[in-house]
Design a protein that fits this description.
The complex is a heterodimer of chains A (about 210) and B (about 210). Chain A is of the alpha+beta class and about 210 residues long. Helices cover about 35% and strands about 30% of the residues of chain A. The longest helix of chain A has 14 residues, at about 135-150. With about 210 residues, chain B is an alpha+beta fold. The chains are: A alpha+beta (about 210), B alpha+beta (about 210). At the A-B interface, strand 1, strand 6, strand 8, strand 9 and strand 11 of A face strand 1, strand 6, strand 8, strand 9 and strand 11 of B. Strand 1 (about 5-10) of chain A pairs antiparallel with strand 9 of chain B, so a sheet runs across the interface.
Chain lengths: ~210, ~210
């Protein structure tokens, strides 16, 4: 493998995610030092999905192309290309494109903690492929990420969600058991409310796992 | 809102001919390394020739504006806006020249598997304008602020000693140099040759090479 890689943000296939279009930079590069992803939209479209970073992530948004309107807390600002916006954890933020072809790159990490791949972006990519009838490609993306990070409970958990939504109970429970072994407390918390797993709840293996 | 345009960031011209536009320092980011760079003119350096061998950082260089000619591990690539180069191997030598005067490159970095620590070079670069104009108290204060966070960072201690020696604080310089050498013995050899220590080289306790 070469020690470096070149990527054009234009070449990334946008992944629909919570009403936005994710450009999965981190997943494609397998970047391991911080979270980094892009968001693209045409004029009036949602760039950054409305959210807070509950996990304690600091985030920097960089307008790479076009123009965005950012709302952070109760402030709204025009952000032309070249603008950098810093948002601390637990502050609500969203952005809308003010021009066609706008791209924003978001970089994130938690102070005092090594960056961990939880795989939300991998899951977004896999799920978008699944929903567009390309489940095999989605599964391959998840498998590739799990091979890179066999110790990531989040990736195994997301693979369980993927297979549950596909109706593959056996594969879903295999992934769920793996996630459970890696981080029981977190997985129990998510299992309680995650509708992605609804097809598994009546299966005797569900109670067996929670016992 | 805590926002700034890349052109509004501080502009620190460094000896390598490139201009450092501090991003992490501007926003007080502590979770990852991030900075922007611009050239002093078209054809000038925009990313310093360097490796990340010591820090072990994985770095991404994203062209925000203009065009840049990157050389990575001896390979040459021209990148335009919205293109990035990810240097996974920290030991690869990399650098870039700006092909347009308004080129701007964003660099993101950190060491996989470890919490981000503010790199010592940031304080050293931040102190360059003060040091060039011999405003030693200001240069010293920048180093002291960085050392408050990383008290045993040998490069910071060494550089602080340089500033103190030049700034007429020989005792402080000697103490900080001794501590730097204690933590990183190779600095003893550097100190012997370093003209910054001309004022204290003959003092008792100056580290022997």
């Amino acid at each position: 493998m070469k020690g470096y890689e070149i990527l054009s943000l234009d070449e990334l296939e946008p992944v629909p995610h919570h009403g936005s279009n994710l450009l999965p930079i981190r997943e494609v590069l397998d970047y391991r030092a911080a979270g980094i992803n892009g968001w693209s939209a045409d004029a009036g479209g949602q760039l950054v999905p409305p959210h807070e970073e509950d996990s304690g992530n600091e985030e920097l948004y960089v307008v790479v192309r076009g123009r965005a309107t950012f709302t952070v807390g109760d402030e709204t600002a025009d952000a032309p290309a070249g603008t950098l916006i810093f948002v601390p954890p637990r502050v609500h933020r969203t952005a809308v494109a003010a021009e066609g072809g706008t791209i924003v790159v978001a970089i994130g990490g938690t102070v005092g903690k090594a960056f961990e791949v939880h795989g939300w972006d991998t899951h977004a990519l896999a799920d978008a492929l699944r929903q567009s009838g390309r489940a095999d490609e989605g599964r391959a993306a998840l498998r590739r990420s799990m091979e890179r990070r066999p110790d990531s409970w989040g990736l195994s958990y997301n693979a369980a969600c993927f297979e549950a939504l596909e109706g593959n109970g056996d594969a879903a429970f295999d992934h769920l058991r793996r996630a459970f072994d890696l981080n029981e407390a977190e997985v129990r918390g998510y299992m309680a409310h995650d509708t992605d797993l609804d097809s598994l709840r009546e299966d005797p293996r569900w109670q067996e796992l929670l016992r | 809102m805590n926002a700034a345009h890349v052109d509004e960031l501080d502009r620190i011209e460094l000896p390598g001919g490139f201009v450092w536009r501090p991003v992490r320092r501007r926003f007080g980011i502590r979770a990852f390394g991030v900075n922007a760079y611009t050239p002093s003119e078209a054809g000038g350096q925009v990313v310093e020739e360097h490796t990340e061998g010591i820090l072990g950082h994985e770095e991404i260089y994203l062209v925000l504006r203009g065009r840049a000619r990157f050389t990575v591990g001896g390979d040459v690539h021209e990148l335009g806006p919205g293109q990035l180069i990810f240097v996974r191997d920290p030991t690869l030598r990399r650098g870039a020249v700006a092909l347009d005067a308004d080129t701007a490159v964003l660099a993101v970095g950190g060491k996989p598997g470890e919490p981000y620590e503010i790199s010592a070079w940031e304080a050293m670069f931040a102190a360059v304008p003060a040091a060039q104009q011999e405003r030693w108290d200001e240069a010293i204060a920048i180093h002291e602020a960085a050392l408050a966070e990383r008290p045993d960072q040998p490069a910071l201690l060494y550089n602080l000693a340089c500033m103190e020696s030049r700034g007429g604080r020989p005792l402080d310089a000697l103490l900080h140099l001794q501590r730097a050498v204690e933590l990183e013995p190779r600095y003893a050899e550097d100190a012997v040759r370093d003209s910054d220590f001309a004022a204290i080289r003959d003092e008792p306790g100056f580290p022997a090479a």
